[in-house]
Amino acid sequence: MENMLLWLIFFTPGWTLIAGSEMEQDFMWHLRRVPRIVSERTFHLTSPAFQADAKMMVNTVCGIECQKELPTPSLSELENYLSYETVFENGTRTLTRVKVQDLVLEPTQNITTKGASVRRKRQVYGTDSRFSILDKRFLTNFPFSTAVKLSTGCSGILISPQHVLTAAHCVHDGRDYVKGSKKLRVGLLKMRNKGGGKKRRGSKRSRREASGGDRREGTREHLQERAKGGRRRKQSGRGQRVSEGRPSFQWTRVKNTHIPKGWARGGSGDAALDYDYALLELKRAHKKKYMELGISPTIKKMPGGMIHFSGFDNDRADQLVYRFCSVSDESSDLLYQYCDAESGSTGSGVYLRLKDPDKKNWKRKIIAVYSGHQWVDVHGVQKDYNVAVRITPLKYAQICLWIHGNDANCAYG
User: Fold this and answer.
1) CA-to-CA distance for 267 and 80, rounded, in angstroms?
2) Res. 120: pLDDT tops 90
């Protein structure tokens, strides 16, 4: 039954799942010109201590009501927030100052869901609406195969052949880099091994970091070899658990990490939730299909007001967990929702499936990063939400700069 539902979700065009007057043409990716972010100057900083604890919550969050009263950031303030730190695998660190060009400053706007078609029935804590992806036909194929696990305990998503997007708090608590982030590794879901037992070997470090994945991997290979008529390995009762889709990981070192100064403020103030995102560059490129970056539309431009994301929730023992839900409210930089999620899923890429106007097919793009559970001020009342950081045009331009090293390929998003 669960597999049937997943087939319906992923292979039925989004507009057919929506009642009312909303039409297919309302839900398209529209390329638009984005501001330019240009690297101006890079400074060397002292090496971090790497002593912070992984911090899933910031001390205070400026919610919807709070954001209404904020003045529009000046150009110099935006350039300061979008300047960024880079920490390298050898422990060295730099700060790059940036300039923002072609930006039209507009008054701060708070967008609400008033009048939007939103399924309120999905905004219920306590009813677990998550799906564990157990079937290997889904687990090792797009879009689920884009989900990755970080050695610090978070999730992330592949956005290029060599880059992972995640939450900044997964590697930095706003003042210092977290323990373990100096030797940060990313676990990619493993595809089927075609070389028998050869790929099971590898360094002791890789086997240790896979947290027992070598034992599960052997069982997975046994099932695959039986289908091919290959040689068989002796099995114990673990075979049933493997058939239920517990993944194994291929662990890859991170070459460098980029974090915006809006988050990595050091001792100059609390980290801003609006900037809870980071980009990891892998030491070696992967060959998986990745998910492209997009700019977050308003809720009214999301089919059914729905978002989707997959991550490795800590309460599901290394299973990949998928969920979808409607967005409850939104501000210029954040999406407020009640998607069921546990720690471990933070850093997941939030995505939509909209129509590509040129190719006339449906395409998924990442439009936010899941940050986690927060208490926020909403219309003068403290409410708890699960919060995602939206990919705005400025953030799109910054992440694009991090990926390509220059802004030449970042004019439209």
Assistant:
1) 15
2) no
Look-up of token digits 């997943």: 6
pLDDT of residue 111: 43
Sign of CA dihedral 352, 355, 358, 364: positive
Cis check: omega of the bond before 143, within 30 degrees of 0: yes
Give the residue-averaged pLDDT of 126-147.
80
For the chain, what percent of residues have pLDDT higher than 70?
Answer: 68
Residues 392 and 189: beta-carbon distance below 8 Å? no
Average pLDDT (278-305) is: 90
Whole-angstrom CA distances from 19 to 16, 24, 202, 305 are 8, 11, 52, 12
Q: Report the predicted TM-score, pTM, of the whole model to 2 decimal places.
A: 0.79
Domains of the chain: 30-104+130-191+246-404 (2.40.10.10)
Mapped to the 3 state alphabet, what secondary structure does the chain carry?
CHHHHHHHHHHCCHHHHCCCCCCHHHCECCCCECCEEEEEEEEEECCCCCCECCCCCCCCCCCHHHHHCCCCCCHHHHHHHHCEEEEECCCCEEEEEEEEECCCCCCCCCCCCCCCCCCHHHCCCCCCCCEECCCHHHHCCCCHHHEEEECCCCEEEEEECCEEEECHHHCECCCCEECCCCCCEEEEECCCCCCCCHHHCCCHHHHHHCCCHHHHHHHHHHHHHHHHCCCCCCCCCCHHHHHCCCCCEEEEEEEEEEEECCCCCCCCCCCCHHHCCEEEEECCCCCCCCCEECCCCCHHHCHHHEEEEEECCHHHCCCCEEEEEEEEEECCCEEEECCCCCCCCCCCEEEEEEECCCCCCEEEEEEEEEEEEEEEEECCEEEEEEEEEECCHHHHHHHHHHHHCCCCCCCEC
- pLDDT band with cut points at 50, 70 and 90 for residue 246: low
